[in-house]
Amino acid sequence: MPFIPHTESDIRAMLKSIGAKSIDDLFDEIPKELRAGKLTQVPEGLSEMQVTRLMQERAQQDGHYLNFIGAGAYEHHIPAAVWEIVTRGEFYSAYTPYQAEASQGTLQLLYEYQTMMASLTGMDISNASLYDGASGLAEAVLMAVRAHKKARKILMPRTVHPIYRSVVGAIVANQNIEIVEVPFDTVGGYVAPDSLSAFAGGEYAALVIPQPNFFGVLEEVDALTDWAHANNMLAIALVNPTSLAILKAPGEWGSKGADIAVGEGQPLGAPLSSGGPYFGFMACKEPLVRQMPGRIIGRTVDKDGKSGFTLTLQAREQHIRRSKATSNICTNQGLIVTAATIYMSLLGPEGLERVAAACHANTLATIEKLTAIKGVTRVFSRPVFHEAVLRLDMPVADALRALEPQGILGGFDLADHYPELGQALLICATETRSPADIDQYAFHLERVVSKRRLDPPCAVKANPV
Amino acid sequence: MSNIPSDLKYTKSHEWVKSNSDGTVTVGITDHAQGLMGDMVYVDLPQSGVAVTAGKECGVVESVKAASDIYSPVSGEVIESNAALADAPESVNKDCYGAGWMFRIKPSSPADLGALLDAKAYAELVASESH
What we know:
Structural class of chain B: alpha+beta
Oligomer: heterodimer
Number of helices of chain A: 11
CATH class of chain B: Mainly Beta
Largest sheet of chain B: 6 strands, antiparallel
CATH architecture of chain B: Beta Barrel
Helix content of chain B: 10-25%
Number of strands of chain B: 9
Mean pLDDT of chain B: 93
CATH architecture of the largest domain in chain A: 3-Layer(aba) Sandwich
Shape of chain A: globular
Number of strands of chain A: 15
CATH superfamily of chain B: RNA polymerase II/Efflux pump adaptor protein, barrel-sandwich hybrid domain
């Protein structure tokens, strides 16, 4: 069989047999104004040498910074073995293979990934991954609405990542699902469980519980989970996988545990890489499994009684259930999941716990150093995992701009998403930040902040005579 | 040849309907349907209190080889669904007209019942589909 499916003569023969003059004729029902037309900005092909040169130049433009930004994507140390193994030919594909059972090695890896994620989240079942954390949360919302059957409203705390909230809104908006925002306590930076009484008695399908929340703050997950269940709704845990090495697993939250756990898998072995590709993870309690989207790998025995791996519960999927499938997700982020599986295997539970503990310790050390600077204060009183919100006595954007030439990415400016917090900066220090890095950040931030305070604007300077 | 009890009514989508003395109807899937589906692994039923519409899907049966919708034979309100099927979906295979019953409906329009097939008409439908 030829690998180029359509030769010129094939195309001519096919067009002739259906009576069309050209391939363009096949698209004539699409109005002209909606067509993209020719891609005029895309240059002609380049040689490999030219592409290599171009990519090196682009990579240099990114520069090398001391990074104190988290806000959803986290810089962790990735053991060299991870991507060395991932890029082996046997693994190097992002897709679940067709005739999946012919690829036992891939299925075994995904099965082991699912086992690790189920263990980390304290849930019964994990799927083989979703696209990313934000769309994963949208899938969890859709799943909760399907499972609940009656309510089509979701309680979404304002402490959830703002981009996740906007992705969820975009995905569910046309499905007659209403997202209701839950405000946060401005002293603690969390959803005060008492404040939920305002929503009691409403018909909601689920409460989303972020842990840690977007501010890095730990929520009262036990109380929130129990409140959700007492009010006839599901509890969706939105969690950071690294944090689960030292925090309580969602399956153990409250008296019954969260129903669905979902999150961004990037911290488990994927580089920041300008924002992707990452992967989403999702796990749930067994009674919900038929509402779960994505592929699920099971372990079974063949006709000779030998153990093997297979796709299972496929009646949820679009090749069987068509438009009634739980999701249109058919492939997954297999390659990044492969990295995550190897990352978790190499670290083990103890290694991941040490990473999480080092992140926490470094963040506390950074908070201590930075808040020792006059004009820098901590915004929220409650405990954090590996991020925290600081307030500056100057516009955050100006401070970040002044730090950048010093080689420091000082954090994420919250002004756009949380104007109510004033001049607020979200910082993060993972295990990759050394004491010297933190000192360097504190040194430069102090210069930036104090310069601002000490130097009057030019206009009021005394004119030299 | 599949079992088609003469005292029941049927739908073209292979549900059976039994009229109860209290005015409710009990619904399940026919012997012919369970035979085509094969071994059941999961049954998703409408909850009591839910309003259903004649001819509209209200549940799902999943077997080892297929998943198929269950259509409500009549409009009305679901009074009870067979909770035992959650743990024993194989009842649908073993005893589809007995322990494999699925849900009871309080019909809102008695005319819906008149539109259903009798055993003879359903037997003809099954015979025509197998040719």
